[in-house]
Amino acid sequence: MFSELEKEALYKVIYKRRDVRTFLTNKIPDEVILNILNAAHHGPSVGFMRPWNFILVSSDEIKERLAWATEKERRALAIHYEGERQNQFLNLKIEGIKQAPLTICVTCDPTRGGSHVLGRNSIPETDIMSTACAIQNMWLAACVEGLAMGWVSFYKKNDVRDILKIPLHIDPIALISIGYTDNYPEKPILETANWEERKDLKDLIFKESWGTSSL
């Protein structure tokens, strides 16, 4: 069992965690990086497949190339918006790859575990779901270590494969910027920018079947 203080600490970090885009250049101690990766490696995975790998990038040259890939995709995505919405999108700071001292590419190996993995044969996407659980553990661990983390999701996967020399069958799920920050937001960036609002939980809960209110 857990004490009230331990439970309070868990919920505190869940609610405090933010997607951060502004970083200091201060180096992260190696033992802290290992703590974060070990938390990820202890994430739940379907069939205990643990399909993840972690590519640690601190080279300015490689980070510059990754930033190019994300900015190229951001510009391409901007055409889906018009007028003020497009300006709002382009003004959003969506990546801090060049600023953060460390970028981690989290990958997913769909062949991990062989041709039969308990659970994956029924739902193939469970390898990606498992990798996402590892990333969430990284986020919570980074938060308690006093670090900021940003998940960059704007890029073409083949660009990242080429830059990081990732085999074609490996899926680059996320580029993660990690570093210290002096600007840890109280609210999610997109909520502060009035891009989107958090939906009321009671409107998302059904009872027994879809669309039947439970409250």
Textual characterization of the structure:
The protein is α+β, with helices and mostly antiparallel strands. The chain has 7 helices and 4 strands; from the N terminus they run ααβααβαβαβα. The chain has helices at residues 4-16, 30-41, 60-77, 83-91, 126-144, 157-164, 189-192, and strands at 52-57, 102-108, 148-152, 171-179. A 4-stranded antiparallel sheet has the order 1-2-4-3, with helices on both faces. The longest helix has 19 residues, at 126-144. It is globular. The mean pLDDT is 88.
Topology:
Elements: H1 4-16, H2 30-41, E1 52-57, H3 60-77, H4 83-91, E2 102-108, H5 126-144, E3 148-152, H6 157-164, E4 171-179, H7 189-192
Antiparallel strand pairs: 1-2, 2-4, 3-4
Helix pairs in contact: 2-5, 3-6
Using brief descriptors, characterize the structure shown.
single chain, 215 residues, alpha+beta, 39% helix, globular
- Tell me the strand order in the biggest sheet: 1-2-4-3
| Rg, alpha carbons | 19 Å
SSE-based structural type: alpha+beta
Number of helices: 7
Quaternary structure of the protein:
single chain
Report mean pLDDT, rounded to a whole number.
Answer: 88
The amount of helix comes to: 25-40%
**SSE pattern, N- to C-terminal:** HHEHHEHEHEH
Low-confidence stretches: none
Put the structure in a nutshell.
With about 220 residues, the protein is of the alpha+beta class. It has seven helices and four strands; from the N terminus they run ααβααβαβαβα.
